[in-house]
Amino acid sequence: MAFTEVNQIKGDNQKYRLSPEIKKYSLRDVGFMETKTGKFELERSLDPNSPYNQGFKFKMTVEADLKKFKMATLTANGMREVDVHKGKDVDTHLEQLNFILDNLIERQIIEKA
User: Fold this and answer.
1) Which of 19-33 are b and which e, b meaning 16 or more Cβ less than 10 Å from the residue's Cβ?
2) Which of 7, 59, 67, 93 could connect to 84 by a Cys-Cys bridge, CB 3.0–4.6 Å?
3) For residue 77, what are the CA distances in angstroms to 4, 22, 53, 102?
4) What pTM was computed for the model?
């Protein structure tokens, strides 16, 4: 998946873009880790019972210049993008995903496009 200015989660109609108010320290406050290349990455489990269970996860990466990003819901090993709107435990996965996205919106990291 390529870095773009507007992204959406597979199976969701809502699109998101980076907030014009985004700051590097805000990314760190939320839990983003800076890579060796200067990009910021966030990975969160979509299992509300344990962050260590092997289930779906949300991953978001922001370029070092804070202009473009990518985000996706992935399998536990991170190799394949999945649609959390289908399958078993849809309600719990969506609740956790929406909690993560709402937190990113509240912290002015992303906004609805």
Assistant:
1) beebeeebbeebebe
2) 93
3) 23, 29, 11, 25
4) 0.92
Question: What domains does the chain contain, in order, with CATH numbers?
Answer: 6-112 (3.30.1820.10)
User: Hey, what are 109's tokens?
Assistant: 């990291």
* Rounded Cα gap, residues 71 and 105, in angstroms: 14
Residue 43: CB atoms within 10 A of its CB come to: 15
Cα 73–11–91 angle (5° rounding)? 75
Are 108 and 22 contacting, i.e. CB atoms less than 8 angstroms apart?
A: yes
Residue-wise pLDDT for 30-81, tens only, equals: 999 999 999 999 999 988 776 666 789 999 999 999 999 999 999 988 899 9
The residue type of 67 is K
